[in-house]
Amino acid sequence: MHWLFGDQLGPHFLTPGDDGPGRDTPLLMIEARSVFRRRRFHRAKAHLILSAMRHRAAELGERMTYVRADTYRQGLEEVAGDRPVTVHHPTSYAALRLVRSLPQVTLSPARGFLVPMDDFAAWADGQGGERLRQEDFYRWVRKGHDLLMDGDAPAGDRWNLDHDNRQPPPRAASTLQVPAPFRPREDDIDDEVRHDLDRWERDGDVAFVGRDAPRAFPASRAEARAALKRFLTHRLPTFGPYEDAVLAADPVMSHSLLSSSLNLGLLDPAECVERAEAEWRAGRAPLNSVEGFVRQIAGWREYVWQLYWYFGEDYRRSNVLCHTAALPHWWSELDADAVEARCLRTVLSQVRDTGWTHHIPRLMILGSYALQRGWDPAAVTDWFHRCFVDGYDWVMVPNVVGMSQYADGGRMTTKPYTSGGAYVHRMSDLCGPCRYRPGDRTGEQACPYTAGYWAFLDRHRERLGRNHRTARPVHQLGRLTDLPEVRRQEGDRGDAPP
Q1: pLDDT in tens, the chain (498 residues)
Q2: Which terminus has fewer CB within 10 Å in the chain: N or C?
Q3: How far apart are CA 144 and CA 142, in angstroms?
Q4: Which stretches does the entry tag as region Disordered (predicted)?
Q5: Checking DSSP bridges between strand 149-150 and strand 153-154, what pairing results, if any?
Q6: Contacts 24+ apart (CB under 8 A), 40-43
């Protein structure tokens, strides 16, 4: 019997081979209620995961034994007993510990990623093992998988087209004016999931955050393929230039919305990047958009997965800035209505309503605010894990601990990713109607991000002053005549919603 976890749902997890199940091997999937008891997940995330698992079980028919149990261990014992079971490497340390504790289970290598873990470890060891830069890794992957390559040279003679992909949103536009992304239609399985979640909540068995709404992300291979096709055909050409831009009325812009499908295993990353490259070679999409998309998958997603395992489980406890403040109630409950700062209110409401927002709001609005306030990075990581439909342990530990909260002191990134309100003002339309002014550090209209940025630099001036990428703004602290007022103001702000 072969055991499929709920994020191993695509056909590439069942391809026969030395490390795969046979074509007729019986399959097992376990829906463990305890997963939803341990954390208050976003309701939309719980719905998506269960819908995807049940859709896959229905597709596989009699070959699949689908068990609803209290725990994975209980479900495995109920169906398999002492019989041998195989499973592909799971995507979290907790699941890996469980698998290794079960004597009848044989562990096979991970699938759903481009680079085998051993190959990455050899590459990382060759780089010295500590400061592993994503750009170096990305180029290595491009060469090894012949992605966007012309012989030994990168397509267009440039590895990195970020300079072309950092445009602010079009002036006077409330939306990007591109075709809408694929949206699925719910079916009887979705109805069943919704009724089950309602019942569990009524019984007090589980609790969720966020709002319930019609499912917005693919829950089957067919839906995921349709979403990929629509992105490649209608949205990829405009993806690159505006991938970092934010519009209040257009939360999806030209983004692919494929992260949840990739992380559920409904799509293979290889098919995504290869089909995107084919669009460029056919002249249907510009190189900068295709390179930006390939970078997100073959570069960043792959890099995050590999670092999660390479750095080890203790990495999640990194906290070099000694940030220990608890998350305030309004943040934990996604209470966007309590917030006056328009950028934060807009993004928090997107998370509340859909369980998703794109990477710049995650990093430069949500993550930046948490970093400036000194919140416990482990709690921030858990919040992102629970509240995003594409959030998994392997995704959020490096992304939040390393990238967003700089809790590792620079093992993953060269500087903290935080800024004053000027960045948000430049890259979005969020600041115009806001009661706060991005240029004000003090006073009634002081932008929480601008004041918070200087207060953050002030608290950590010794460490950040030694970093060549933050030394200049730290030096500018000495020129701020209102710095004492900034300190008092931000101390008084505390955990109140801005």
Answers
A1: 999 999 999 999 999 887 889 889 999 999 999 999 989 999 999 999 999 999 999 999 999 999 999 999 999 999 998 899 999 999 999 999 999 999 999 999 999 999 999 999 999 998 887 778 999 999 999 999 999 999 999 999 999 998 899 999 998 899 999 999 999 999 999 999 999 999 999 999 999 999 999 999 999 999 999 999 999 999 999 999 999 999 999 999 999 999 999 999 999 999 999 999 999 999 999 999 999 999 999 999 999 999 999 999 999 999 999 999 999 999 999 999 999 999 999 999 999 999 999 999 999 999 999 999 999 999 999 999 999 999 999 999 999 999 999 999 999 999 999 999 999 999 999 998 999 999 999 999 999 999 999 999 999 999 999 999 999 999 999 999 999 999 999 999 889 999
A2: N
A3: 6
A4: 477-498
A5: antiparallel
A6: 40/207, 40/208, 40/209, 40/386, 41/208, 41/209, 41/386, 41/387, 42/208, 42/209, 42/210, 42/351, 42/355, 42/386, 42/387, 42/388, 42/389, 43/197, 43/208, 43/209, 43/210, 43/211, 43/212, 43/355
235 in Cβ contact with 179 (< 8 Å): yes
User: How far is Cα 9 from Cα 251, in angstroms, rounded to an integer?
Assistant: 27
Question: Considering only CA atoms, which of 302, 340, 330 is closest in space to residue 433?
Answer: 340
CA distance 452 to 325: 15
Q: Dmax over Cα atoms in the chain, in whole Å? A: 74
* CA distance from start to end of the chain: 54
Please tell me the distance from the alpha carbon of residue 161 to that of residue 157, in angstroms, as a whole number. 10
**Tokens, residue 86:** 């195989």
Q: Locate 425 and state its tokens.
A: 């003002």
Full-model pTM: 0.96
**DSSP for residue 356:** -
